[in-house]
Amino acid sequence: MSYLDTLSKEQKTNIGIITEEAKKQGITNPNTIAGMLAIVSKESAFIPREEKSYAGTSNSRIRKVFGSRVPSSDSALNTLKANPKQFFDRIYGDRYGNNADEGYKYRGRGFNQLTFKGNYEKFGDNIGVDLVKNPDKVNNVRTAAKVLIAYNKEGIDSLKKHNKLGAYNAENINDFKTPVDSTLAFYHATAGSGKDVSYVKGLQKNDHLGGMTKALKRVNELLLASKMYVKKNKFKTVLVVSITIIAIYSLVKILKK
After folding, report:
1. What is the per-residue pLDDT for 30?
2. Which pLDDT does position 59 carry in this prediction?
3. Model pLDDT, residue 230
4. Residue ranges of the chain whose pLDDT lies below 50
């Protein structure tokens, strides 16, 4: 069974919505869109949602993801992860605009798991929505798509500014030659432009978290999906057909004279 065969109608619809929003914001390269979709596939599976509780996650996995931000004692970590509010406040509090007690409030949401008050403010301002007062709006499909594209555009610009975008054989967001290069670049943009290129590319062979493996495995199918699941504009299609018919009719009348 292919990856696309496992997707629900809602997931396929959302792929189309993301693709449409990307094009509205000037992203037209199919490889670029496929790379973005590949990262979304491992971040939220195309369903915008808040970051889930880690209560059922193994301590070893939590430490792989969050490192020294969580207790080294298993008993202490078990107690912490059983309380989502305390857990997220611990790992996200006092960072990137969050107060100590705002980690839970500004935990990951949306298609790309937008995290931290500073990002809610920045990208809310970018799309004209107050996400600081209304963080759950990031889980609205249309809002999530706008946030995702704005976030990725800034991420690629940051890679370019730090002279790292060229490592993925591109000079701008519409310049990716392959879906693999695009996936690597968007993984890097999501992880932060401060990461080394060697670290990101190294995940192709040694992926300790598993996200890169999932994204690369799916990206070629998502290249097709970005073309398959975009809704056709029926009015536009009818208009084009009507104009064509009128033009042909007029031409026939002229030729008969």
Report:
1. 97
2. 96
3. 75
4. 234-235, 237, 252
Q: Give the dihedral sign, CA 120/122/126/129.
A: positive
Residues 210/222, Cβ–Cβ less than 8 Å: no
Q: What pTM value is reported for the model?
A: 0.86
pLDDT at 232: 60
3-state secondary structure the chain: CCCHHHCCHHHHHHHHHHHHHHHHCCCCCHHHHHHHHHHHHHHCCCCCCCCCCCCCCCHHHHHHHHHHHCCCCHHHHHHHHCCHHHHHHHHHCCCCCCCCCCCCCCCCECCCCECCHHHHHHHHHHHCCCCCCCHHHHHCHHHHHHHHHHHHHHHHHHHHHCCCHHHHCCCCCCCCCCHHHHHHHHHHHHHCCCCCHHHHHHCCCCCCCCHHHHHHHHHHHHHHHHHHCCCCCHHHHHHHHHHHHHHHHHHHHHHHC
Hey, what amino acid is at 176? F
Q: Are 65 and 72 in contact (CB under 8 A)?
A: no
**What percent of the chain lies above the pLDDT cut of 90?**
86
Q: Count of residues for the chain?
A: 257
Q: Which tokens go with 33? A: 């869109």
Task: Tell me the CA end-to-end span of the chain in Å, nearest whole number.
Answer: 60
Chain-centroid distance of CA 236 in Å reads 29
Task: Supply 75's token pair.
Answer: 């008993």
**pLDDT at 235 (0 to 100):** 47
Contact 109, 139 (CB under 8 A): yes
The 10s digit of each residue's pLDDT in 114-134 is: 999 999 999 999 999 999 999
